[in-house]
Amino acid sequence: MTRRRRTKSRTVRLARRCVGFCRQLLRQAAACCWSLALRLWRHFRRPTVIIDARRRQARRLRREIARAARTYAHALGVELPSGLLVVVQRVVHEGRQLNALLQAFDAPDGNRRYVVHLALSVNGRAVSDDELLAALRHQLTRALEDAIGKPVLSVPLELEMPRLRTAAPVVELRPEARERQDGRRPMPIERIEDDQAS
Fold it and tell me: Which of 31, 62, 153, 161 is the most buried (most CB within 10 A)?
């Protein structure tokens, strides 16, 4: 009888261990599936970014643009539009050179697709990464209007950039000895200094 009880208790303990191990495996599998699902969802919800630049710069910009777009949409409390395409190219031209251009296309199924064009240079001046991201956020605001509504208040603020002073014309300090119209030559500077000293 004692032997039966021992065998029974060992069997129960072994069964409990197996159940605990299976539960732990199921929890880990569920956590892995959940993280994979989140990664896939984020992958498909992030914008497609095409960059015309060197590989290293393109990789860095692609990460920054995708992160900035997701963060901006999340801060506004909406999701990015499905099928959002961001194209970063050397120049954006629409009658004149622009920093950015937003295009919207109505698909036959009723969905609207957005393409944001961002310029790496405007009128021969290279655009910094900060300016590029600011232009992206500005265009995303317009693209997200369907989800968040139109702005009811807009207060523009323009901070003046310090302007460069125009360069003064170059003046010769020691003009070459040229003849005047009356035929006489001007007196050299050294001679004037010598005359004043004496």
Answer: 62
**What would the DSSP string read from start to end of 88-114?**
EES-EESSSEESEEEEEEE-TTS-EEE
Measured over the CA atoms of residue 50, residue 56, residue 59 and residue 60, the dihedral's sign is: negative
Measured in Å, how far apart are the chain's first and last C-alpha atoms?
137
Nearest to 51, CA basis, from 129, 106, 140, 124: 129
Amino acid at 88: V
Alpha-carbon distances of 163 from 159, 160, 166, rounded to whole Å: 12, 8, 9
Q: What's the rounded Cα separation, in Å, for the pair 154 and 170?
A: 47
91 neighbors 52 (Cβ within 8 angstroms) = no
How many residues are given for the chain?
198
H-type alpha helices, 46-93:
55-76
Count CA atoms closer than 13 A to 78's CA, side-chain side. Answer: 15
- How far is the CA of 78 from the CAs of 35, 45, 70, 140, 144, in angstroms? 21, 12, 9, 11, 8
pLDDT tens digits, one per residue of 98-155: 899 999 998 888 888 899 999 999 988 899 999 999 999 999 998 898 888 888 888 8
SS3 187: coil
